[in-house]
Design brief:
The protein is α/β, with parallel strands linked by helices. The chain has a single domain, classed as Rossmann fold. About 35% of the residues lie in helices and about 10% in strands. The protein contains 13 helices and ten strands. The strands form three sheets. It has a six-stranded mixed β-sheet with strand order 3-2-4-5-6-9. Helix 8 runs antiparallel to helix 9 and helix 12 crosses helix 13. The chain binds 2-acetamido-2-deoxy-beta-D-glucopyranose (4 copies). One 2-acetamido-2-deoxy-beta-D-glucopyranose binds next to loops.
């Protein structure tokens, strides 16, 4: 598999370099060897939480995890998340959550993401609004502490050497980010207008960029940054926010929310370009998850999926989503617990798992589209994401 991506990538570079007349072509600055990332450090929200919020506030209930792990596994999905496929794709074990103190092995990385995380700390409690107290600034503090303490404890030897990353892994690791969606919905939940939410988007990117810069100052070099998804297509948004018929696009998504997501993504892409200038040794890959998720809603059938707006696991309503009885919800009847928000028969043909998060099948499909560098800027395969790409302002091949 490795060789295949490598071959395709070299081929791709040649095409780009010779076929483009005026636009700048992208080429490697160094070699075309795979990076052999020894670790992944992930920052994010529920899209990449592998057990953080579960460790802090209680397990994601069954039937979460049923397809792949066969029991709840700290993930809001029936199975693997995109971050799990990324770990697999790099030949690394699944990431344990930093917050998970039982049975965790951090020798090949750690996951700081928690469900409900935002870039900016919220002024509401989790009780009030559902957002996680582990916002990105907190995740950075945890990462920094993890970095220092890994060093101290590995030096003690024994079991610590087997459970914590080697010092050089911190500079050789892939740093992945998938965060921002909750910052947008936080504004809508406070009844802010689209314009009011847009107004604070630049601040979100300043804060996200500062975290990347801080990780860089601690030695991080390879950054893989997912943009935010079409939140206006999620049953969770369609059910909760006031939307007029005129605001629904031809596929069934709420345009205003998607427009703000795209605005965030435009600014995120610009922030990536600025970071490449500011951090001369960093390789920064921006990954267009939005387009892929949107395609799943718009052209579900074409890719083997059915009824993309209907949650697989839920309870009633137009979208099989009820904010008061989410996936895994139970009621007690005659002293017996009954699961009222259960899984659909075949999650492998569904896009949305619980009204908010994607199924393993959808995550797998998205991974297959991004792994070879398609939908990435620069168009670099996952295994090559340590290579900084230079922009040449003519079409000559580098020596
Ligand atoms: C929280 O409140 C502070 C002080 O008013 C403000 O500066 C900050 O932007 C607020 N944060 C959010 C996410 O609204
Ligand atoms: C942690 O995981 C690594 C890699 O999978 C393995 O080599 C190591 O033995 C594990 N440590 C423990 C204590 O199980
Ligand atoms: C937002 O508006 C709704 C409907 O008018 C209201 O019920 C809710 O309390 C408001 N929320 C906030 C945070 O102001
Ligand atoms: C990348 O993989 C996807 C999915 O397999 C495929 O459709 C696409 O053509 C590939 N792109 C390149 C540049 O190889």
């Amino acid at each position: 598999m490795e060789a295949k991506y490598l071959r395709r990538f070299i081929f791709g570079v040649i095409i780009i370099s010779t076929a483009s007349i005026s636009p700048p072509s992208l080429v490697y600055s160094t070699t075309t060897s795979a990076c052999s990332f020894p670790a992944i450090f992930n920052f994010g929200d529920s899209n990449s939480d592998t057990g953080g919020i579960s460790a802090a506030f209680g397990q994601a209930p069954t039937p979460n995890g049923q397809t792949f792990f066969h029991h709840p596994a700290g993930r809001f999905s029936d199975g693997r998340l995109l971050i799990d496929f990324i770990a697999e794709g790099l030949g690394l074990p699944y990431l344990n959550a930093y917050l998970d103190s039982v049975g965790s092995n951090f020798s090949h990385g750690a996951n700081f993401a928690t469900a409900g995380s935002t870039i900016r700390p919220q002024n509401t409690t989790r009780q009030q609004s559902g957002y996680s107290p582990f916002s990105l600034d907190v995740q950075l503090v945890q990462y920094s502490d993890f970095h220092i303490r890994s060093h101290t404890y590995r030096n003690k030897g024994g079991v610590f050497e087997d459970l914590l990353p080697k010092e050089d892994y911190f500079s050789k690791a892939l740093y992945t980010f998938d965060i921002g969606q909750n910052d947008l919905t936080a504004g809508y939940k406070l009844n802010m207008s689209i314009e009011q939410v847009k107004a604070y988007v630049p601040d979100l990117l300043v804060q996200l960029s500062n975290v990347v810069k801080n990780v860089y100052s601690q030695g991080g070099r390879s950054f893989w940054i997912h943009n935010t998804g079409p939140v206006g297509c999620l049953p969770y948004s369609l059910d909760r926010f006031l939307i007029t018929a005129a605001q629904i696009d031809k596929y069934g998504c709420a345009s205003p929310f998607n427009e703000v997501a795209q605005f965030f993504n435009k600014k995120l892409k610009q922030a990536g370009a600025s970071l490449r200038k500011d951090l001369p040794l960093a390789a920064i890959t921006y990954v267009d998850i939005y387009s892929l998720k949107y395609t799943l809603f718009a052209k579900a059938k074409k890719f083997g999926f059915e009824e993309p707006f209907i949650a697989c696991c839920g309870h009633g309503g137009k979208y099989n989503y009820n904010s008061l009885a989410r996936c895994g919800a139970r009621i007690t009847v005659d002293d017996k617990e009954i699961l009222i928000a259960n899984s659909c028969k075949d999650p492998s043909v569904k896009v949305i798992w619980d009204g908010i998060h994607f199924t393993e099948a959808a995550n797998k499909w998205i991974f297959q589209q991004i792994v070879n560098g398609s939908f990435c800027d620069p168009p670099i395969p996952l295994q090559m994401a340590c290579h900084r790409m230079l922009t040449y302002h003519n079409n000559s091949l580098p020596i």
